[in-house]
Amino acid sequence: MFNARHPPIDLVRALGSDAEVYEPDWNSVGEDVSLASTDRYSTPEWLCELIRLALGGTIDCDPFADPTSPVQAHHYIDARRGGNGYRDQWPGYRALVNAGYGGKLPQLTAARCREQWLRGFELVNVCPAAVGSKYWERDVWPCASAVAFLGRVAFPAGVDVYNRKGEFVCAAGVAQSGNRTEIAAVYQGPHVLRFQRLLEHRGPVIVPSR
User: Fold this and answer.
1) What confidence tens digit (pLDDT) does each residue in 25-36 have?
2) Where are the domains of the chain?
3) How many CB atoms lie within 10 A of CB 7?
4) Which of 28, 64, 99, 101 is a plausible cystine mate for 109, CB 3.0–4.6 Å?
5) How many other CB atoms are found less than 10 A from the CB of residue 145?
6) Do residues 136 and 190 make contact, with C-beta atoms less than 8 angstroms apart?
7) How far apart are CA 20 and CA 16, in angstroms?
């Protein structure tokens, strides 16, 4: 098994993915993308704790931080303070990643995670379980050490939520049920058994064969 801090730079191709490498221009991804109001939802505390333990008890960086989030990290990249997790350097080498799910954000996040993993990061990306999509084939499956399928996770709202008619839906901090999106936690790192043991009681964990 490779060293999470120093994976071979051509590992994605070596793992058998023949898809075209996706290299976004990170400087063109503006702060407005990270500030999408529809994505003001927090990672549930139970999931934050499991990921913290899966990363060895320490989260160095939350690259898509929100001040309402319960994530406890040494460093935060917050778009509301001028940061941009798609462009800025991620401090440390262990990250909990949970960016927005709207539009093109999931594929941008997967590409950013692939890039940071190749630079040595151990990380967990909480994302839509779009297992048959092109970006999963290109940027997720080739780099995933293990994938936990968590079902429809109830995410606490980061701010008061209103529908398109301006009608009140729920208060900040309330976890909405009925999420239509199946969620996965994608682990990219060397401690597969630890991740598997911690997450398997929340849903099936797949360890891709190499």
Assistant:
1) 656 565 445 444
2) 21-204
3) 20
4) 99
5) 21
6) no
7) 12
